[in-house]
Automatic annotation (TrEMBL):
Transmembrane segments: 28-44, 64-89, 101-123
One biological process term in Gene Ontology: toxin biosynthetic process
GO CC terms, sorted: membrane
Lineage of source species: unclassified sequences, metagenomes, ecological metagenomes
Swiss-Prot/TrEMBL keywords: Membrane, Transmembrane, Transmembrane helix
PANTHER family per UniProt: COLICIN V PRODUCTION PROTEIN
Protein known as: CvpA family protein
Length: 189
């Protein structure tokens, strides 16, 4: 196994352990809260920016502050709801099942994170590198990334190349032509 393979295993293992530790309900709620926070910031940021302090003179600064405020408030509300829900689950005796399902959710999330990482790295020269080609795990994730690539808009998908041509040899315009220098002659005695 290469270093890339160990990194992939580490990402998935950390995600599995987080899912096991937090449980399915907390994991799904956390994901829903992040989506809700992003949506609320996007939806209400412009209206809230009108109520930002006058010290923020630039409209873009007011809008950014409004987005940040809404995002953080929704995350705080979600954290409180998550805590209440965890207390409820512990009271019902379903915490073992919740944790096992959380572990499965964590495994799926880890695989998705690695697949998205491989997809994004497909937009770089990394697929040409030896560590990429020598990995035992990347080919499987690359096939999954190709499935996702097929669902991307064509303008974005064209930048993802897992089998790119080798980098061209660039000749610098200011480089001097190479000359063969004769070996130093030895003085004749």
């Amino acid at each position: 196994m290469s270093a890339a393979d160990y990194a992939i295993v580490a990402v998935i293992a950390i995600s599995v352990l987080l899912g096991l530790w937090r449980g399915l309900i907390a994991e799904v709620l956390a994901l829903a809260v992040w989506v809700a926070a992003l949506w609320a910031a996007w939806q209400f940021g412009e209206r809230v920016s009108a109520y930002m302090p006058a010290a923020l003179r630039e409209p873009s600064a007011r809008l950014f502050a409004a987005w940040a405020l809404i995002f953080v408030l929704v995350l705080i509300i979600g954290a409180v709801l998550g805590w209440l829900l965890r207390m409820l689950v512990q009271g019902t005796g379903l915490s073992g099942t919740d944790r096992m399902l959380g572990m499965l959710f964590g495994a799926a999330r880890g695989v998705l994170i690695v697949t998205l990482g491989v997809l994004l790295l497909g937009m770089t020269p990394f697929p040409r590198d030896p560590w990429w080609r020598q990995s035992a795990l990347i080919p499987g994730f690359q096939r999954a990334a190709e499935v996702l690539q097929a669902r991307l808009p064509p303008g974005v998908a064209r930048y993802v190349r897992f089998d790119p041509a080798p980098l061209p040899v660039v000749k610098l315009p200011f480089a001097l032509p190479s000359r063969t220098v004769p070996p130093p002659s030895s003085p004749e005695s």
